[in-house]
Amino acid sequence: MPRANRQASAFTGAGFCGTLLACAALAAALGSAPAKAADDEAKLSGESDSKRWWQGGDDGVTLPGVFADWHLYQKDGFRIDRSDASLKLKFNASLWLDAGDIGANDALETAFPGYPGQTVEFSRARVTMRGRAFDAGDFKFQVELAQKPQVKDSWFRFNPVPYLGRIRVGNMREPYSLENSTSGGNLTFMSRSLPTLALAPGRNIGIATTNTAFDQRLTWSAGYFWNTASYANFGGAQDALSNSIGIDFVARVTGLARYAHGGRDLIHLGLSLAHQRFHDQIQVRAVPETALTDDSLVDTGKFQPERAVNINPEFVVVAGPWSFQAEYFHEAFKYPGAGNPRLKGIYAFGSYILTGESRHYDRAAGVFDGVRPKRNFRWGSSGWGAWEVALRLSHVDLNDGALGGGRQTDLTAGLNWYINEDSRLMFNFVYGRVKGRSNPPPIDGGRTNILQARFQIDF
């Protein structure tokens, strides 16, 4: 069903443009702040789990009296450290404001009467606490406040163990697929692609380990998870476990066939495998590459297979400001009652950074962690941040055997303005076609177009 706060008549075209102008004005205000030097330490995002954010310190305030052992300062967020370094804490917040105009032809509007229209809403309001405790390891606790409160990441990661690497226990995103493993704040587009949304596992409770080899030219991750998804509060983890619908075993391996010029010239190869067992019903579906609707235009409906085997190869080439990325998804179910269906999808995109930067690659995790402007935007200076254009084609097929979830193809054009390392303006236009869906409501010949923009900022 559409989100309750989404009303097509509530916004006019002028209102949509006004929201975008307000975002631009806020970006201009941010640009008036002093810019960071180009050689400043790289931003350590609360989403980046591979970097040792706790190393180093900064000038700040030491509290008086009984709190004299605590030191407060600002560095890529708000930090609190004990003077003996036994405990270090870092707090961050992330805010995304989305505005969009969704169009649909008669076939889609008949199937989803509340789908088309204009919307302005916060798609993310997330607070993150990172910690380092007694040299035993680090932890993360993250809460999403937009739409409905959810606990996202809540895990503890132990110090490296010989051969096994760093072991993490808790609720986390399963190590499967490049796009799925990339932080949402570092994606090239406003949404993950159709096959990633439909066929890649998300966050679940489990245990996983990650390690690197050959001077970080190779990474590998493996994990065992209860299929639980997010839960509403920290105490809800027990309920999530008791209501799990299955067990996942997941592994991902990545390698750099080429890495030169500090990552401006690279070839990335990867492969993910997953084996899933189910003891309850599941549902495979995807929204049309936007956060502005909950309507899934392709949807299998609920069914209960015995198990599934997933495979996902990934490929990326970066040549200076140019980049090409592609992944293929294949999920084969053991479900004799439905003809053992096989669902599949693929996406590919190319991007070009007009200001000459390259997408930054995190060798310890085998993912990309955004674009870092050479010169941040600032009024009265020559710095205009970084500008990027991108084009993506994605396709997902949820029709096979007795499943009739439909087939959808999306073409997305994107423009990104990286104001600085902490803020970005994004513009996406999505054109999608849906056909062959027999699961109610049936759709054949459906077409949608989505014009959307986002202002995102990390504190």
Characterization of this structure:
With 459 residues, the protein is mainly beta. It has a single domain, classed as Beta Barrel (Porin). Helix content is 9%, strand content 52%. It has five helices and 23 strands. The chain has a 16-stranded antiparallel beta barrel with strand order 4-5-6-7-8-9-10-11-12-15-16-17-20-21-22-23. A two-stranded antiparallel ribbon has the order 13-14. The N terminus is likely disordered.
Can you give me a brief rundown of this structure?
By secondary structure, this protein is mostly beta strands. 9% of the residues lie in helices and 52% in strands.
List the helices and strands and how they pair.
Elements: H1 13-31, E1 61-62, E2 70-74, E3 78-82, E4 87-104, H2 106-111, E5 117-133, E6 137-144, E7 150-158, E8 166-173, H3 178-181, H4 194-199, E9 203-213, E10 218-226, H5 237-242, E11 246-260, E12 265-278, E13 282-286, E14 298-303, E15 307-319, E16 322-334, E17 342-353, E18 359-362, E19 367-371, E20 386-400, E21 403-420, E22 423-435, E23 446-458
Antiparallel strand pairs: 1-2, 2-3, 3-4, 4-5, 4-23, 5-6, 6-7, 7-8, 8-9, 9-10, 10-11, 11-12, 12-15, 13-14, 15-16, 16-17, 17-20, 18-19, 20-21, 21-22, 22-23
